[in-house]
Design brief:
It is a single chain. This protein is an alpha+beta fold. 43% of the residues lie in helices and 11% in strands. The protein is built from 5 helices and 3 strands, in the order βββααααα. Strands 1-2-3 form a 3-stranded antiparallel β-sheet. A hairpin with a 5-residue loop joins β1 and β2 (9-14). The chain is globular.
């Protein structure tokens, strides 16, 4: 179990090998397809608690996003991921959820390098030359 230095990535052993999950825009598109609901409904779905179906879709979409972004052969489906989950420990599930939350791809940190939540400066601005 490993968190990557880059936000939005984590590595876990699934199906007998170490797999990387990437929580990116590609993840959200795959997650919508796998979970069967749109991103606009996520607050309702997750607000009711994390179901096994949603958790399986989350793990599947994370692995799928990384593998497709890196041109890997996709040799698994959601049902394989469901089988792999039988051996996943609680701390691994926590790591997945924490990594997803830290990625903040739909939150404040998706900003093309521009700082968010900037506080107003208390310094006097330099006068402009006329």
């Amino acid at each position: 179990m490993q968190v990557n230095d880059k936000r939005g990535y984590c590595q876990l052993e699934f199906g007998g090998k170490v797999r990387t999950l990437h929580f990116s825009m590609n993840f959200w598109a795959a997650f919508e397809n796998a979970a069967g609901f749109s991103i606009s409904e996520i607050d309702k779905v997750l607000g009711a608690g994390l179901s096994l179906t949603t958790l399986r879709a989350m793990i599947y979409a994370g692995i799928l996003a990384y593998d497709q972004e890196n041109k890997q052969v996709i040799d698994y489906d959601q049902f394989d991921v469901g089988n792999w989950m039988e051996d996943v420990k609680q701390e691994s599930i926590q790591l997945i959820v924490e990594t997803l939350m830290q990625s903040r791809i739909l939150g404040n940190d998706l900003n093309a390098g521009v700082r968010r939540n900037v506080e107003k400066s208390t310094k006097n601005p330099k006068p402009k030359n006329p």
